[in-house]
Amino acid sequence: LAGRQGTGLLYFAGHGLQLDWRNHLVPVDARLDSAADVPTQTLDVQTVIEAFQAAGNRMNILVLDACRDNPFVDGNAAKGLAPMDAPSGTFLAYATAPGNVAEDGDATGGNGLYTRFLLQEITKPVARIEDVFKRVRLSVRQQSKGRQIPWESTSLEEDFYFNDGKVVQPAKPTEAELAKAYSTEKQDWSRISASRNEADYFAFLHHINLIGIHDLTDTV
After folding, report:
1. Sign of the alpha-carbon dihedral angle for 94, 12, 113, 120
2. For 79-133, what is each residue's pLDDT tens digit?
């Protein structure tokens, strides 16, 4: 991101905790036996913000679906995540209010409440980031019957849209690219054309679907 004047975005869903009023994101392979392990085995959210600032980003967005119970009982870490003030040009979004925990949702959905509704909202066209998270907050609060209320801190100075409503047409491949793809496809077909294993045909069809057989057919 350095020097590109772009938008930095971190989305994290997993275990998070606070220690001494600093928020930490826990990797899946961390082995936290005590509070002393937290600084060395986790990622301090502040270091992410500092990295974004060092890159000179125009805007930064952090979305943390990581508000869980503190696994320690020694009193050095509190419940949920700690509140943070968003630095200039930054949008911080939490799955629930500071000091609270987020619900996992049902096992069949694959996502917690927060992420489920966030995925729905970010695809809607021409919605400012503030409106996206406002609707997510409403949906999560209603679904959880008030047990979970998402929270944001923002210091953005310009508008941001996850989906601006513009339809981007994929770049049309050149004649050389099409010819190369067709040659590869022909070689692959020659290798499996006499096969009696249906898996070979499935893999071939999957491959030509990825490279866009309709484009090749139009040219050939």
Report:
1. positive
2. 667 778 888 899 999 998 876 777 766 666 678 889 999 999 999 998 899 999 9
d(C-alpha 68, C-alpha 91), whole Å: 21
For the chain, the residue count is 220
Which residue blocks in the chain are alpha helix, DSSP H? 38-41, 45-55, 113-122, 129-143, 175-192, 198-211, 213-219
Tokens representing 154 are 């923002």
Written as one string, the DSSP assignment of 96-129 is S-TT-------TTTSS-HHHHHHHHHHTSSS-BH
Q: What is the pLDDT of residues 29-68, one digit of tens each?
A: 888 888 888 888 888 999 999 999 999 999 999 999 986 6
Total-model pTM: 0.69
CA distances from 63 to 25, 36, 53, 129, 154 (A): 12, 26, 17, 12, 12
**Tokens coding 210:** 């990825």
Q: Integer distance in angstroms from the first to the last C-alpha of the chain?
A: 41
Residues 6+ apart with CB under 8 A from 194: none
Q: 99, 79 in Cβ contact below 8 A?
A: yes
**Predicted local distance difference test score (pLDDT) of residue 104:** 66
